[in-house]
Amino acid sequence: xxxxxxxxxxxxxxxxxxxxxxxxxxxxxxxxxxxxxxxxxxxxxxxxxxxxxxxxxxxxxxxxxxxxxxxxxxxxxxxxxxxxxxxxxxxxxxxxxxxxxxxxxxxxxxxxxxxxxxxxxxxxxxxxxxxxxxxxxxxxxxxxxxxxxxxxxxxxxxxxxxxxxxxxxxxxxxxxxxxxxxxxxxxxxxxxxxxxxxxxxxxxxxxxxxxxxxxxxxxxxxxxxxxxxxxxxxxxxxxxxxxxxxxxxxxxxxxxxxxxxxxxxxxxxxxxxxxxxxxxxxxxxxxxxxxxxxxxxxxxxxxxxxxxxxxxxxxxxxxxxxxxxxxxxxxxxxxxxxxxxxxxxxxxxxxxxxxxxxxxxxxxxxxxxxxxxxxxxxxxxxxxxxxxxxxxxxxxxxxxxxxxxxxxxxxxxxxxxxxxxxxxxxxxxxxxxxxxxxxxxxxxxxxxxxxxxxxxxxxxxxxxxxxxxxxxxxxxxxxxxxxxxxxxxxxxxxxxxxxxxxxxxxxxxxxxxxxxxxxxxxxxxxxxxxxxxxxxxxxxxxxxxxxxxxxxxxxxxxxx
Length: 560
Fold this sequence. Notes:
- By secondary structure, this protein is mostly beta strands.
- Helices cover 8% and strands 36% of the residues.
- It has helices at 26-30, 105-113, 273-277, 282-285, 354-357, 517-531, and strands at residues 5-8, 44-46, 57-66, 68-69, 72-73, 81-89, 95-101, 148-152, 155-159, 166-168, 202-203, 210-217, 221-229, 242-247, 255-257, 261-266, 269-271, 286-288, 293-300, 309-314, 318-327, 331-339, 366-374, 379-386, 390-394, 406-412, 421-428, 433-438, 443-445, 449-452, 462-470, 475-482, 490-495, 507-511.
- The strands form 9 sheets. It has a 5-stranded antiparallel β-sheet with strand order 1-28-27-26-25, with no helix packed on it.
- Strand 26 and strand 27 form a beta hairpin.
- The longest helix has 15 residues, at 517-531.
- The model is unreliable at 1-5, 11-20 and 537-548 (pLDDT under 50).
């Protein structure tokens, strides 16, 4: 491993060159897009690992985990089917390990037909030819549920930006059928036909309520729906979701909250209105407007006691929000991961997978930037906190919407390069200093998940959990770091029986959620009873006729 160090985060220029001698192995990185081996005996328990004594709960991670059907690969990693990975740390020091694909209707359909039956949102084309290619259902993009996960009211939900959530059984990660035709769940009727549940939910650090958004766009406007659910309950604060209306077609990548405000960031985009009017995907409709202005939109979370405020910001391309908080005199501070340009995320040549065709060093650089916005005057001040390429930012969950000192992030291997994530960092937003641990050139990290110690004494008093994939050894390790001293390196590191691909989606930590061996065995027996039935299709529904929808309707089993 590289020697640990603390550095002051360097300020970067937008035009800073990319180092020609990358400090990572691109071939090793490309090996991280693979389909993991099934666990022959299902979930398994590990013992004898030297774990922190106060670590108790379950770590969930979502991300693409199936990239091929027969010999045909998806064009973009986010068109790969979702794979949930989970670790449960018991009070007795055992670790329950499991991973499983989200058993969506699209996955079952592809496996049954042995082809990519429909298009993907990010450029993957259906395998149909001739008359079969005329079937309009093949033009309906497949929801892969690989972008996020959340746990609320003891329900585990696999998330995707384009659909309703999929319920997941937490002990063995079986997919549970919801109440929608495709097997998803509309949260007991709260989500109507047009509304989804996106992949970056947040829990308010003040009210401990779950918040999230959904969005729909057409040529005339974009509607962003905002949801709030009471602490530990799927009981909506507002029976009808709050709506934010934005003129024209756009795409919101993330949102942020303070006790009073919902904050959205609108990127500077050019819009093909014809494609927007004909229902094309946002990647086809939008392109980056290099000379344009972005917008920050502030809408009150409270009753309509204040007007919406829109503030223009030069060339703002928000990839994600790290956090935000309020100051006096109607001022709001936002820590934003900004990109040098808007990456539409859609491949130009669908015949090759993006990770094989593209150089990851040529993707937009992401920096952590602080904006202080005066809502009264609409004045904006800007300060770069960290110029090192980074992603997967977060704060201590108790600090969401509050003034914070630290941001946790995955960072690139080298200080001056763009590329895959090769380190874990704690960033002091006041001083700009970086406490960072980096891995070998053949290793790559996923999102760092912060977990507070049992009797936490400070904002960074806890652990950071991540998964490291080694492309040379083709193995995956779980790494636990002391958040107070990240550069010291792992306090615990152990290998998994089966390697898992890069974790490109968001994760979740559920405090106190654990399972016994007996509980796991009983649930596996139940799942095995359903395995045969879940692939029993109605042959009458497999043709072109729109009268039959078996390939597009949920299967009538509880688990799959």
